[in-house]
Amino acid sequence: MKRLLSLTALAAFLLPIGAQAQDAQSIERGKQASMVCAACHMPDGRGSVVPNVEARPRITGLDPVYFVKQLQDYKSGARDNASMKPIATMLSDEQMQDVANYFASLPVVHDVAQPASEEMMKLGERLVKLGEWDRFIPACVSCHGAEARGAGANFPNLNGQPAEYTEQQLIAWQKGTRKNDLLGLMKPIAERLNENEIKALAAWFAAQPAQK
Predict the structure, then answer these.
(1) What percent of the chain has pLDDT over 70?
(2) Residue whose C-alpha is closest to residue 186's, from 156, 152, 147, 149
(3) Which uninterrupted H or E stretch holds 33?
(4) Of 16, 19, 27, 152, which residue is most buried, by most CB within 10 angstroms?
């Protein structure tokens, strides 16, 4: 009995070590596979913007499950993007997980946002924290968690994203050209936002610290 208890205790001790080793191996593999991501999202994952062409998001500070789902959706066509489709198609499921684990292990950084007017910032903050319930627009934090820093696998961290990227995505939800979210929640919300509100939200999120 004592021997059995000793073996059980040893197994309980070794399991976390084994998991940590596997995580470290996955992160290292992800680092190698992520080289293809660096050209657009930068080596540190901060994202980049090519004016009038494309805004590439910050990809650190995201839940790995959410990260993998987006890659799978690009691969399947559930989420459409001409730049991401060929990249996602070349990745195996294991590579997707490795890349997600690698970027999740990095510090969350982003470029300094261009300043917006005080009026725009106040509007963005109100929509994020309070919403406009009389127009059936819930507060962003009601799904995306405290300070909109993400909630589980379906609601990503929105802070520190390039304003251009957030604006493009809200317009895509609005038009129905993006529709890979949980239960189709984003389309009706985006449809109720006007152009000024979309710009205010994008500016507010871009100005926030991109913390996990």
Answers:
(1) 91
(2) 156
(3) helix 2-33
(4) 27
